[in-house]
Amino acid sequence: MKSFATKSSVTIWALVLAALAAQAQDAKRPEFEVATVRRSSPDTILDSFVPTLNVAPGTTLGIANRQLKEIIMIAYGIGGRQMDGPQWLMNPRGGVADVPRFDIVAKVPSEAKQEDVPAMLQNLLANRFKLRVHREPRQISIYALEMGKGGLTIHPVPAGSGSQSGCRRSMFGENGVTTAVCENMTTAQLAQQLQTLSSAYFPEGPVIDTTGLTGSYDFTLQWITQQQRMEGQEGPSMFDAMDKLGLHIERRKGTADVLVVDDAEQTPSAN
Known about the structure:
Elements: H1 2-27, E1 34-39, E2 47-51, E3 60-66, H2 68-76, E4 83-84, H3 87-90, E5 102-107, H4 117-129, E6 132-147, E7 166-170, E8 178-185, H5 187-197, E9 207-209, E10 217-223, H6 226-230, H7 238-244, E11 247-263
Parallel strand pairs: 4-11, 6-9
Antiparallel strand pairs: 1-5, 2-7, 3-5, 6-11, 7-8, 8-10
């Protein structure tokens, strides 16, 4: 009888410890208060919103009309050349209209910490798309974002301006020029977003901010796509758009962490 009681006590304590461990693990996984993930409407294919994750507690994060790989880039703060994964994710087949795009609306809890927002988006992708990843360092080419010789032509916005940080892109406007209106953006955030806004300009590696700047800026980018340039159309390149801001991009050799997608589902689970 004593032996049975001892075994029962051990079993009970094991269950208690397992429950406490599960609670501790849950406590370390910050999550949005509420979040919806929906397939984007085909009517919005030329317009999108690419936010940064500089989202204040109690406000809403919105992502509009972006591919899953681009949302992963936003969540992990990387460029397209810093990610590796299955063919359907990295280079989906079919035309532009055939590639699935998604809208995300997510409420950040008012008691959350702002630095937890990336982890919230990562956890949302893990829950809804069953995303599993790991990182590994690789020797790759990088595009260094530097100060231009003439200095910046843009000015920092006042602290706490309140505008949502991100770029709203409209493609193929007047004369075929694509425009991105960006607000409250640091140069580090710009470097990461360039690879989503116009990835074809950076085929060999990620854009890395080397300016040392810490301020946030409002600015507008205007460029034509690489495909348009290959077809002989005249217009500003993305490098021209950077020069107009007083910035410069230089290709170099370097080492960067690559995010490897081990597994993901193409369709999110229901809201």
